[in-house]
Specification:
The chain has 186 residues and is mainly alpha-helical. It contains seven helices and no strands. The longest helix has 39 residues. It is elongated, with a radius of gyration of 39 Å.
Amino acid sequence: MSKDNLEQLFERLQGEFNIEEPNSGHQERFLEKLNQSKGVVSLNKRKTNWLRPLSIAASIILLCVLGLKVFNGQPTLKEQVVEIAPEVSKTEFYFANLIEEQVQQLKDVKSPETAKLVDDTLLQLQKLENNYQTLEQELVNGGNSKIILNAMITNFQTRIDLLKEVLTNIENIKNLKSYNDENFTI
């Protein structure tokens, strides 16, 4: 066919082309009919595709649950404590930073001679932290706020005093060891 004949053919058929999309699964049905006409038996039975709608539904449910948790979530214990006594957060921030610095110093000076002392101190600090969390819960539950706030501050001060005492004891152990090493003669 020449170029002119093709152009004439397309001009003549303009507007009569089938541009519609075939129905879903058209290719599979066509191939199945083709195979049947040739006598080929297909082992693949058409599977119902229920996995996709199920996964979409599960995703939507998950998003709804997470959205409800984020927007209607119960405030944390810390948020409830700050709501009851706003000064607690400032005090806690100050003491927590001071305690964290001293705990880091304690971990830095840990040696084989002081390992037991440092480990016991960290265990005691964890117990004091657990007591502090109990005090926070009591404050949220409506206990006597003045007494509980005083107990919370005392808890922080106890932790700081414990850390200072242990650091002093570790320094004494180091000084005693160096003194014994200097006086030891062979």
